[in-house]
Amino acid sequence: MGLLRKLFDYSAIFYSVTGLLRTGNPLSAISLVQLDVTSGASIHSAVLHIAENHGCLDVLISNAGITSTAEPLLNQLHQTFDTNTFGPAVLIAAMTPLLQKSQGSRIIFVSSELGSIERRTDRNYMFDAIDALAYYMSKAALNMLAICFAKSSEKPCKDLVL
What is the DSSP letter of 49? Predict the structure, then answer.
């Protein structure tokens, strides 16, 4: 459980499952790369690191998520969307060549039920009173991003999980 807790401290996490398939040892197969999804330089550095050390990317877990309280609202929207939606889109685009080199690549989008439009319309929804406009919107957009990647003619990977 400690390992899982540590994994979710990162804004994006990468696994190399090739080592797992070769050795059968899950600890030899996990490679973590911490990055800032709002930084092009950080994303580029992660791409280079994975390419040089692994040659491909088997699993990308997109776990970025913040709730901004910045003022005015426009700043809050920019901060939240930059991390929760735009960052993952740019990250996946940058990682696509590495994902396509893998025999069984996967992208896992960690979203939130707060991004569900259907649940947001339900007045009895247990989180209805939460005031997080930018977060709701950004996670709904992330869900759409996942569906668009899944239906794209140039899929970045073999399988997407939301």
Answer: H
Q: What is the CA radius of gyration of the chain?
A: 17
| The residue type at 21 | L
Integer Cα distance of 10 and 106 in angstroms = 18
Nearest to 103 by CA among 54, 153, 44, 48: 54
Helix/strand/coil percentages in the chain, nearest 5: 50, 10, 40
Tell me the domains of the chain and their CATH numbers.
2-161 (3.40.50.720)
73-124 pLDDT per residue, tens: 999 999 999 999 999 999 999 999 999 998 888 888 888 877 777 777 788 8
- CA dist 125 and 118 (Å) reads 10
Rounded to whole angstroms, the Cα distance separating 87 from 90 reads 5
